[in-house]
Design goal:
The protein is mainly α. It has 5 helices and no strands. It is globular and about 45 Å long.
């Protein structure tokens, strides 16, 4: 029952987001859309930052909160962490530039010539 309800809930969230986005006015995107786009361009950097924060907060050999907080508190910490990475990506990516982890990955993959595109 829980798995089926989770699938239905996920589909409901996707439908609600689709409705909200479809009713947005065309043209210049708002600050929320720009922040989410920046997070998408910095996706690897945001993922790595979230991983470091979660280890620092939840791992028993670091912050150790994993065993001491409930599901609601852990979810709250996760949402605050995600919002923090979205805001940081929006503030640190002027002009749609990619994040440092993405730039390093491209440099390792394609060589030095791709560094000028960032």
């Amino acid at each position: 029952m829980g798995t089926g309800l989770a699938v239905v809930g996920g589909l409901a969230y996707a439908a609600i987001i689709g409705l909200v986005v479809s009713r947005m006015r065309p043209g210049y995107p708002g600050p929320v859309v720009r922040a989410l786009a920046a997070c998408g361009q910095w996706s690897l950097t945001c993922y790595l930052l979230q991983s470091v924060i979660f280890v620092a907060v939840f791992a028993p050999y670091a912050g150790g909160l994993g065993a001491r907080v409930g599901n609601a508190a852990a979810s709250g910490i996760a949402v605050v962490t995600w919002l923090t990475t979205v805001v940081l990506a929006a503030l640190l990516s002027p002009g749609g530039r990619r994040g440092p982890a993405e730039a390093a990955l491209r440099r390792l993959t394609y060589g030095r010539c791709w560094l000028t595109w960032f």
